[in-house]
Amino acid sequence: MATIPAAASAGTWFGHPRQLARLFSTEMWERFGFYGMRALLVLYLTKHFVFGDKVGGGMYGAYMSMVYLTPFIGGILADRFLGSKRAVKFGALVMAVGYFVLCFGGENAQPTATYDGITHNVTIEPVDGKEARFVADHGSRLRIKGNDDGSVALLSPDGTTARTVAKADFVADAVRSPMYITIMLLALSAIVVGNGFFKPNISTMVGGLYAPGDRRRDAGFTIFYMGINLGSLGSQILCPFLAVAFGWWAGFGLAAVGMLVAFMLIQFDGGKLDGHGEAPASANARDRSALIYLASLAAIVVPWLLFSNTLTAVPAAAGGGIGAYLLALPVLGKALFVTFIVAVPGILIWSYRAGSKQEFQMMVAAMVLIVFNVTFFTLFEQAGSSLTLFADRNTDLSIFGLFSISAGQTQFFNAIFIVILAPIFAAMWAALARRGMEPGIPVKFGLALVGVGAGFLFLVWGTHFADAGYKVAIWWLAGLYLIHSMAELCISPVGLSMITKLSIARIVGMMMGVWFLSISVAQYIGGIVAQVASVATVGGEVTNLKVSLDTYAGVFQTIGLISAVIGLFLLALSFPLKRLMHGVD
Fold first, then answer.
1. First to last CA, the chain
2. Whole-number Å distance between alpha carbons of 1 and 424
3. Comparing C-alpha atoms, which of 209, 207, 91 is closest to residue 493?
């Protein structure tokens, strides 16, 4: 922003096109709903429906992957038929309905424990200020406690071990209502479809505010990105608070309100967005919007089927190799990997035939960066899954001993750091650009990958200082989010801007969809990573905090080192990539 003339005209907003203010506000409220719901989702799955970590992590990864998969289709439909503005409005309405439907989740599932061929109901009772799990076994009330080797001890009221059940012989599950599971899956499916229309096209509208070569573009996207985090900051505090204070319905209901506000900002724009994001001229001859809307609503059944398949998929047997693992993936996993593998070379082949040599080389650079983007978001988006569960189980959530926050609220650290750091980074990039020292896009991507790995390694360091209850101070988790936020500012707003600058103009919407497709693949792989970090639970709670701490530390260390190495490799690759970009910064 420091490069903007001091005297902004009446037609600008902080030196940027005035329309950026409305798009900023629209995205802020949409993200308010999205991140408020995300802060609750994995906890909702593991505590309300009492799914185990593997199912909860897999479902979270499936949801997030589909959220980023559908923009590939929404971008194409907007480019060819609807225009970005109508696509954004339709998507906002459908998402609002999805959040509202999530309010109807019914009663908590009844946790159970099966051993010796008998299924016992599990009761949850407070013991010394903490929740404990009990079973009634032959008239005795026994407390469930996990052992370090994975076996389960059943404790008598006097604290002695009544018996020990081997890990393989103890199965924790729950009795769930099929109707409420169906309602939940339909709600998630509606959000998936709505987001496909909203997400790529609001970003495309921002890119359309700037002429080619306008150096305000990166700063504009950084400001826009700050709006995302302003929205998520508020919702990640308020939605979990309402969920704890009043019930899950209240948290999801607030997310729905945020989404409706986003819709109204576009629907009732007072003509401020006239000429921006309009339907292409060829679409006006025969308006297909009503048909597209109806078909999209009918298509909600597709993610619902994919969710259902994810719930019932049987994992591959150990020792079967990578081939057996891939074949055992749910339909969604197979579809994602095939789509990405086909889309990337397919678009490059089209670019080689339809574009100039320079355009093709720029598209190659964009695709290489998109592939590296998968690694970043695989690890960064652990925030909503394994890191939230780590916060719930192995983090002391006390703030200076004055009050405590909930596990879902810990996700606000990322948002508040982005709000603080976004203007600093925007000014920093501008200052470096004036001196001809601003790092290129590939360098920023490499720094982001090194940073996300460093964040995990920082938290692993913190696990060595866990207290006697196997919990780390919340500031170690906050430190991870600080490092991840700096890494995020090196890739996310820069990545959106990169797509609009390197893409061939007539397919920029589709390329924005490919960008989100890469994040979709990353989200799915992220769900797999979260499953690797899964810990045995009973009634939604771990039975041995030492085992969970050691599990998280081991997984976080591995992925942190892998990310740092990949980031260093990209930094070395940045020099040939820069030549392919033909001066694009």
1. 16
2. 9
3. 207
Helix H, strand E, coil C: the string for 225-254 is HHHHHHHHHHHHHHHHHHHHHCCHHHHHHH
**Residue 421 identity:** L
- Virtual torsion, Cα 441, 444, 448, 450, nearest 10 deg: 120
Query: Secondary structure of 199-217 in the HEC alphabet?
Result: HHHHHHHHHCCCCCCCCCH
Task: Catalogue all structural domains in the chain, each as residue range(s) with its CATH number.
Answer: 13-108+176-315+332-580 (1.20.1250.20), 110-175 (no CATH)
pTM, to two decimals: 0.86
Q: What is the rounded distance in angstroms from the CA atom of residue 372 to the CA atom of residue 324? A: 26
Alpha-carbon distance 475 to 467, whole Å?
A: 13
pLDDT in tens, the chain (585 residues): 333 333 334 467 767 788 888 888 899 999 999 999 999 999 999 999 999 888 998 899 999 999 888 887 888 888 888 888 889 999 999 999 999 999 999 999 999 999 988 898 988 888 877 788 898 887 788 898 888 888 888 988 888 888 898 988 888 899 999 999 999 999 999 999 999 999 878 878 887 787 777 767 767 777 777 778 788 888 999 999 999 999 999 999 999 999 999 999 988 887 778 777 777 766 555 778 889 999 999 999 999 999 999 888 766 555 555 666 667 778 888 888 888 888 888 888 888 888 788 888 888 888 888 889 999 999 998 999 999 999 999 999 999 888 899 999 999 999 899 888 878 887 888 788 888 888 888 899 999 999 999 999 999 999 999 999 899 999 999 999 999 999 998 887 777 678 778 877 777 767 777 887 888 889 999 988 888 888 888 887 888 889 999 999 999 999 999 999 999 999 999 888 888 887 776
Instruction: Answer yes or no: are the C-beta atoms of 404 and 473 closer than 8 Å.
Output: no
Cα–Cα distance, 451 to 417 (Å, whole number): 15
Burial of 373-390, coded b for 16+ CB within 10 Å and e otherwise, reads bbbbbbbbbbbbbbbbbb
